[in-house]
Design goal:
A hairpin with a 4-residue loop joins strand 18 and strand 19. The chain contains 16 helices and 23 strands. The longest helix has 22 residues. Strands 12-19-18-16-20-23-22 form a 7-stranded antiparallel β-sheet, sandwiched between helices. The chain has a 5-stranded antiparallel β-sheet with strand order 3-4-8-7-6, with helices on one face. Strands 9-5-10 form a 3-stranded antiparallel β-sheet. By secondary structure, the chain is of the alpha+beta class. It folds into 3 domains: 60 residues, no CATH class; 145 residues, Outer Surface Protein A, domain 3, CATH 3.90.930.70; 231 residues, 3-Layer(aba) Sandwich (NADH Oxidase). It is elongated. Helix 11 packs across helix 15. Bound molecules: flavin mononucleotide (FMN). The site of flavin mononucleotide has 12 residues, from helix 13 and strand 22.
Length: 446
C-alpha cells in the first residue's frame, strides 16, 4: 500500500498480518468502529492496532465520535508532527482546556484547534461547544459527562477525543495542566505560537508562501503610497562625495551601537535628508509583469518580495528649517508631507519611544515604521506578517548603520504604541499600523 500524506510525502505500508490491508483500505471510504476493523482482520492480533496507532501519530487518520448517525467531533492532524494518541479517562480525573486551544469558524464549520497538538477538531454539535465552555475551569470527568446532554458513554468518548486531540488535558491537584508546569510551553504565549506555526511550513495546515490568493479579486496596492498633500522637498546628498568621505564599512559596523543619550541641539535638514536618502528612498521602479503581477520599487533596504511594505513617519522635535510635527516620508519624491503639527501628537509618539529606550534627553527625531499590510497579504499566505517584521529588522540595521556613518546615533524600539499612531494618523490599524520605531538624534557622548 502506498500512502500519500497531506504534506505530499509518500510512505510504503507493508501490512504485517492477514486482513490488515483490508482493514486499512476500508478506512479510505468511511469511518469504522474498533469492532468493525477487528472483524476485517480477525487473525491480525495486535498488528492492526500497531498500524493504526502509527497512522494516527502521523496525522493520517481522523478519529471521530458520534451519537448514533450524528457526528459530534472529528479529530485530525494539521501537521506531520501531530501526535494523536487515544486515551482512556478514569472517573475522578479532572480535565481542563489547553491555553493553546483555539475555537474559530473555518468556512462553514466550527473548529477547535490545538497548536501544541498540531490538530484540528471539527465541532459537529452544540453539545460539544457546551463541554468546551465548561472546560475553562478544571472539572471532574464524571461531572462533565453528567452535564453534557449526551449519553454518558458518548460523553466520555467525546472527552477522550478532546484529550487525544490535545485540546484538553488532565490537571494536577492544583488545577494546573502539564503545559503550564513545564517551562517550555509554560513560557510561550498563545499568539506567538500561532504566528510561528502559521508562518512556517509544516507546523499547521494551510499554504505558506507565494500564492497570490487575491489575484483577480482585489487590486494589489501600489508600490508607492499615493501622495495626497504638498511635498516638502528634502536635500539630496552627493553620493559620489559620500563614497569618498564615508568612514570604511568595517569601521561603521564596529562603531555601531545603540545610542540613548542626545544633546539639546537641532539636526539640519541636510542631515535628515541624507539619512532618509541613504535608507529609504526609491532608487527605481519595476512595473507588474506576468511572473511578478504587482509593481515594485528598489530601495537601499531589501524587502520580502520587493514589496517595500514599510512607510516611514517622522516625529520631528528639533530640525533646523523644519517646524516640529509628524511627517510622512514620500520615498519616490524624497520629501515630506505633513501629517500633523499638533504638539500633543509629536509628544505622544516621542514620549512613548523615549520611555521604551530610557532615553536621556529628547531625540531630534522618532521614526515610526508602519506596514501597509495588504502589500504582503495580496501575494503571500501564512507568512505575510512574519515577513513584515523581518523587513522591520532589516530597516533597523540600515538605520543603525546610516546613523553611525553620519556620526548620529539611534536606537531601535521594541514596544511602540500603535493606538497612539492610529489616532494621530487616522489610519485603520487593519490597513496600516505602526510595527516599529527608531529614535534618532545627535549623540551626547560622540
Ligand atoms: C528588535 C530590537 C528591538 C529593540 N528594542 C529596544 C527597546 O525597546 N529599548 C531599548 O532601550 N533598546 C532596544 N533595542 C536595542 C538593544 O537593546 C541593543 O541593540 C542591545 O542592547 C545591544 O546593544 P548595541 O545595539 O549597543 O550593540 C532593540 C534592538 C532591536 C534589534
Amino acid at each position: 500500500m502506498l500512502l500519500t500524506t497531506p504534506a505530499g510525502r509518500s510512505r510504503l505500508l507493508r501490512p504485517s498480518a492477514p486482513g490488515v490491508a483490508d482493514a486499512l483500505f476500508s478506512l479510505a471510504t468511511g469511518a469504522r468502529g474498533d469492532a468493525e476493523l477487528t472483524g476485517l482482520a480477525p487473525r491480525a492480533g495486535d498488528a492492526l492496532e500497531r498500524e493504526l496507532a502509527a497512522l494516527l501519530r502521523q496525522g493520517v487518520l481522523n478519529l471521530r465520535c458520534a451519537d448514533g448517525d450524528r457526528e459530534l467531533l472529528r479529530v485530525g492532524g494539521t501537521s506531520e508532527l501531530a501526535a494523536i494518541t487515544p486515551v482512556r479517562l478514569r472517573p475522578g480525573q479532572r480535565l481542563r482546556l489547553s491555553r493553546f486551544a483555539c475555537l474559530r469558524r473555518l468556512d462553514e464549520q466550527l473548529v477547535v484547534e490545538s497548536l501544541t497538538g498540531h490538530t484540528r477538531l471539527v465541532v459537529g454539535a452544540p453539545q460539544v461547544a457546551t463541554v468546551l465552555a465548561r472546560l475553562a475551569e478544571p472539572r471532574d470527568v464524571g461531572e462533565l459527562c453528567a452535564g453534557a446532554d449526551l449519553p454518558a458513554a458518548v460523553a466520555l468518548e467525546l472527552l477522550e477525543l478532546l484529550v487525544a486531540g490535545g485540546v484538553a488535558g488532565a490537571v494536577d491537584e492544583t488545577g494546573r495542566l502539564q503545559e503550564d508546569a513545564d517551562p517550555v510551553p509554560g513560557q510561550r504565549e498563545f499568539h506567538d505560537v500561532l504566528l510561528h506555526w502559521h508562518s512556517r511550513k509544516g507546523l499547521a495546515a494551510g499554504a505558506v508562501g507565494t500564492v497570490y490568493p487575491f489575484r483577480g479579486r482585489f487590486r494589489p496596492l501600489p508600490a508607492v503610497k499615493p501622495v495626497l498633500k504638498p511635498v516638502i522637498a528634502l536635500p539630496r546628498p552627493d553620493l559620489a562625495r559620500l563614497r569618498k568621505s564615508d568612514p570604511p564599512f568595517a569601521e561603521v559596523v564596529e562603531e555601531r551601537r545603540s545610542v540613548r543619550r542626545f544633546v539639546r541641539g537641532s539636526l539640519t535638514l541636510d542631515q535628515l535628508g541624507e539619512f532618509l536618502y541613504r535608507t529609504a528612498r526609491v532608487r527605481g521602479h519595476t512595473p507588474a509583469a506576468e511572473d511578478m503581477p504587482y509593481a515594485r520599487t528598489n530601495r537601499p533596504v531589501p524587502s520580502a518580495g520587493a514589496s517595500q511594505d514599510l512607510e516611514l513617519y517622522l516625529s520631528v522635535t528639533r530640525c533646523r528649517g523644519l517646524p516640529s510635527g509628524v511627517y510622512h516620508y514620500e520615498p519616490a519624491a524624497h520629501g515630506l508631507t505633513l501629517v500633523t503639527a499638533e504638539r500633543d501628537a509629536v509628544l505622544a509618539l516621542v514620549a512613548d519611544a523615549c520611555g521604551s529606550v530610557g532615553a536621556a534627553g529628547v531625540p531630534q527625531v522618532v521614526v515610526t515604521l508602519a506596514a501597509r499590510f495588504n502589500r504582503m497579504s495580496w501575494k503571500y499566505r501564512g507568512l505575510s506578517y512574519a515577513a513584515t517584521l523581518k523587513n522591520v529588522g532589516v530597516f533597523y540595521q540600515a538605520m543603525y548603520l546610516a546613523a553611525t556613518a553620519m556620526r548620529l546615533g539611534g536606537c531601535a524600539v521594541g514596544a511602540g504604541d500603535s493606538a497612539a499612531f492610529a489616532w494621530i494618523t487616522g489610519l485603520d490599524p487593519l490597513e496600516e499600523s505602526s510595527v516599529g520605531e527608531f529614535v534618532l538624534g545627535i549623540p551626547l557622548d560622540r
